[in-house]
Amino acid sequence: MAEYYIGVMSGTSADGIDAILAKIGKDEFSITDFVSISMPSKVRSEILSLIQDDFDALNRAYRLSSQLSSLYAEVVNTLIARNSVVVRAVGCHGQTLRHFPHQNPPYTIQIVNGALLAQLTKTTTVVDFRSADLAAGGEGAPLAPGFHSALFHSSCEDRGVLNLGGIANITYIPKNQTQNILGFDTGPASALLDIWIAEHHNESFDNDGTWAKTGCINTDLLDTFLSDFYFNSPPPKSTGRESFNKEWLHHKLVRFPDLKPEDIQATLVELTAKTISDSINSYLPTIQRLITSGGGSRNSYLIERIERLINPIELETSDIYKIGVNQVEAAAFAWLTYRRMNNLTGNIPTVTGATRECILGAIYEA
What we know:
Layout: E1 3-9, E2 16-25, E3 28-38, H1 41-52, H2 57-81, E4 87-92, E5 95-100, E6 107-111, H3 114-121, E7 125-127, H4 131-135, H5 145-152, E8 159-164, E9 167-173, E10 182-188, H6 191-201, H7 210-213, H8 219-226, H9 246-253, H10 261-283, E11 289-293, H11 300-310, E12 314-317, H12 328-341, H13 349-352, E13 362-364
Parallel strand pairs: 1-4, 4-7, 8-11, 11-12
Antiparallel strand pairs: 1-2, 2-3, 5-6, 7-13, 8-9, 9-10
Helix pairs in contact: 1-2, 2-3, 6-10, 8-10, 10-11
C-alpha cells in the first residue's frame, strides 16, 4: 500500500531548503506537494564559514545543527499543515560540512538534529543516510542514482541524469536493466561560480550566467583547472567544497594575475561544462539523453556550454517529466526514506564502490 513520505534537502550551495511530500508504494511514486525556502543569509554564511574554518567548529556546528533543524521543521510542518494526509516519515539529508571518503578513517558530516526534528514535526524522522555506505567501503555518495533510475528509466534509450548543484553529479541509467547503474561527482557546478561572483560583485550567484557571458574563456587557465587530479581519477568518486573552494581557486589563479574577473567566471563555467562532457565521453559514452536538475539548470549560459560540448546527446530538464529541477534532490530523499522505513537497501555499490548493498539511515521516532 502506498504511503506518504517527506524528503528534505539543503544542498552544497547552501542557498535554500527544499521539501517534497510524495506518495510512494512498490510501483508508485507521485509528488503531492513541494515547499522551498531560501536559506537565511546569516545561516548560509555560518554554513560556508564552518566548511572552511575550524575555529570553535564543534560548538558552532552543534548550535547550527539545531538552527537548521528548526528550519527543516518549518518546511516539513508547512507541508503537513496544508495537506490532509498522514506522513509516515520525514527523511532529511542534513547540511554537508565535510566529506572525506578517502581519509583514514573515512568520514562524512551532515549536520541535522534528528531527535529535535522528530520532536518539532511530531513525525518519525530518518537522517544520516551516508554513513552505512561509507562503513561498507563506499564513497557515501552519490545516493540519488537509485531514485533517478526508478523515475527516469527508459527501455528505449540509455539516459543520464545530471544534478547541477554546488557540485555536479551524473547518473547513468542503461535501457537494459541487467546492466549496472553508474554515477559519480564530475566536479564543481555552481560552487566556484558563486564564490567568484560573491568576491567581485557581492552577489550570491551569477543569475542566468549573465556576468560569465561578458567574459572570454581562457584556455590556459582552463587547462590549469583541469590539471587537478580529481578530474583524471576514475569513478567511483565524490567530492565537495572541502576540495573545490576559494583556496583552491586562488591557488590556481596565481599564474594569471592579469586576467579580467569576467574571463575567469567564463572559464569556470567552461570548467563545469568540460568536466561533464569529458566524464560522459570517458565513462558513459552510450548516453543518448541527458536530464538536468538542480539550480544550475536555470543558468542558461552554463546549459548552453554543456549542450554544445555533449552534442549530439539530447539535453532537457527534469521539468519535462513533471518534477521541477529544484525538487529532484528532495524527492530522492523521500524515496530513500521510503526504502529505509521498509527495510530496503538504498545505495548502489556500482555507484559508490561499497562492498555491499546497505539499508541507509538512522530512525528517530516521533
